[in-house]
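Handout for the seminar on molecular recognition.
Each group receives one record of this type.
Step one: identify the two inputs.
Step two: read the structure output and locate the region that could contact BGN.
Step three: write two sentences on what you found, then compare them with the reference statements printed after the record.
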Amino acid sequence: SAKPSTNRSVTEKPLQPCQETPPGLVGRLLIEFSSPMSMERVQRENPDVRQGGKYTPPDCLPRQKVAYGIYIINQYGEDTFNRAKLLNVGFLEALKDDEEYDCFIFSDVDLIPMDDRNLYRCYEQPRHFAVGMDKFGFRLPYAGYFGGVSGLSKSQFLKINGFPNEYWGWGGEDDDIFNRISLNGMKVSRPDIRIGRYRMIKHERDKHNEPNPQRFTKIQNTKMTMKRDGISSLQYRLVEVSRAPMYTNITVEIGRPP
Ligand code: BGN
């Protein structure tokens, strides 16, 4: 008689889709920067995260493929900073790793979420996650604010031709993204203000990131510029890709203001 099968793939139930709301959320998190957090501790407390910061739930089938990896995009050299262009690079570089990624969360490096119910997934409409930041007294600074942390599905992102590449220095690029979303018939979605809370890591004023004097006129012209300036026109040179245990570090040369 045949032996009973011990092959896991034969005997185990197929994975069920993950729950809409993950089990084990705790809500409000205590985020303070008084004691430094070491990378070793982050690693120890997240044993299921694989090289490059990749993760997939072990016991259920994810409903979305959020770029389930952490990508740090670093601007090479000493020229003026360009946040939105770096975010565009992150989108393309993540897709090079896995063309099935269908959701992208774009985060400033200095923002730490204070509530784990603020779910980093994509929604019916482009998502603005950072609605309550400590530096703005945990309130939305203005109705059209789209800065800090946002999330778009692949199709939402492509619909707006990605983010603008031509905002050099501080300010306005997030307002341009908000305009792109509205002009393309979409509406920003947000978490409850009690949940979308963030602390900003304190840091000195960044060099090479002076307020952009062109930002006021540029945000008036999104309708004209978005068709040609965006993911469709993105140009950059990869300098380095290195895989750390908890993240993938990408350094790129993105040019300088004209
Ligand atoms: C706005 C900036 C945003 C910035 C927020 C919060 C501009 C465009 C001209 C009005 N927009 O004023 O980029 O995220 O403040 O700091 O400067």
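Reference statements: The CA atoms of residues 136 and 198 lie 10 Å apart. The first helix runs from residue 8 to 11.
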